[in-house]
Amino acid sequence: MFRAPIRIAGIGSCLPEKVVTNDEIANMPDLITSDEWIRKRTGIQQRHIADKDQATSDIAIVAAERAMEMAGITAKDIDLIICATVTPDNIFPTLSNWIQKRLDCNEVGSVDVSAACAGFIYGMGMARNYITLDGYKNILLIGAETLSKIIDWKDRNTCVLFADGAAAAILQPCEEDSSWIGPAFLGSKGMPEVLITPAGGSRIPASHESVDNRQHYMKMAGREVFKIVVKIFEDLARMELERHNLTIDDIKYVVPHQVNQRIMDMVSERLNWPEGKIFSNLWRVGNTSSASVPIALTEMIEKGLIERGDLILSCVFGGGMTWASVIFRW
Ligand SMILES: CC(C)(COP(=O)(O)OP(=O)(O)OC[C@H]1O[C@@H](n2cnc3c(N)ncnc32)[C@H](O)[C@@H]1OP(=O)(O)O)[C@@H](O)C(=O)NCCC(=O)NCCS
């Protein structure tokens, strides 16, 4: 098992200022739900939602600036930009291109990863390989979403879950025997229909009809996704520990995609993990897709929950279905 000597030299997040509580959602027109239902079924109490004129890059650049500051580098030091997102400012060009322009980076490579909620760990695997195999020195990896822009605020299945937020990390090569990143395990299964925004692509281009039919909003088969995610999360966690020859006691925190508190609790119980092993901030930020793991990591660093040398296990899963996992030493 090759543990690549790479460290996250800086990390930072940015959540839109506006906070929307469950009660505010319950008071929205044409929506029958309640704070009690949302808390019980998801664990979410509130979420951050972007303003009308706020796009994904607006929060992503703030997160990137914070990550660069922590790493002690400038935009001119970045040699590759990878953004994980399903809500870029435009279908094309990429979110990474906007980041590059707005941070005034050099003419370095920039690419978006579209792997839904699994995107950040897909990006981490890519960054690891670019650093290890191709000698990159400062990769800016971003997970950023404004899912509120594709949420149907009349669909209680989805609007109570998803939210907005961004976080960025600077990945650098480091000394052997200090920090490391294990290989990212990537998986997916062709089940596009269970979590999908039907229109706006080449299958159903934008038309008056597609807008009238609300096809530009995300649709989800919640119960089906729930079942699959529990199984994938459990399998990934077992597999990662086994292939690294570690036990859960070696891991300081499990930082999974912040999906649904019931899913996290269920997996923790099934695997007999001690209470508090899984870090969760879902109650206050909701499901921010590709941004959820780095937002959680940033909060953990700010609170002093992780120190250099700690082992972190991350398992993520999302639309596609896609999934990924990694163990890394902070
Ligand atoms: C969406 C989710 C919270 C629904 O919870 P659930 O316990 O599975 O609920 P069900 O889908 O079985 O629905 C139970 C009932 O609650 C209703 N319901 C759904 N959303 C509701 C809401 N926000 N408020 C009140 N009632 C709601 C359903 O319509 C259904 O009513 P019915 O029995 O009259 O048909 C849950 O399935 C889930 O979290 N799934 C995973 C989704 C996810 O995480 N996706 C992202 C993956 S990255």
Q: State the strand order across the main sheet.
A: 1-7-6-4-5
CATH homologous superfamily (4th level) name: Thiolase/Chalcone synthase
Shape: globular
Helix and strand composition category: alpha+beta
How many helices? The count is: 11
How far the N terminus sits from the C terminus, by CA atoms, comes to: 17 Å
* Gyration radius, in Å: 19 Å
Instruction: Quickly give the CATH architecture.
Output: 3-Layer(aba) Sandwich
CATH level-1 class: Alpha Beta
**Count of the separate structural domains:** 1
Mean pLDDT: 97
**Model regions low in confidence, pLDDT < 50 over at least 5 residues:** none
Kindly state the percentage of residues in helix: 25-40%
Give the oligomer, counting copies of the same chain as homo and different chains as hetero: single chain
The portion of residues forming beta strands comes to 15-25%
Largest sheet: 5 strands, mixed
N-to-C SSE series?
EEHHEHEHEHEHEEEEHEHEHHHEE
The third-level CATH topology is Peroxisomal Thiolase, Chain A, domain 1
Bound molecules: coenzyme A
By DSSP, the count of extended strands is 14
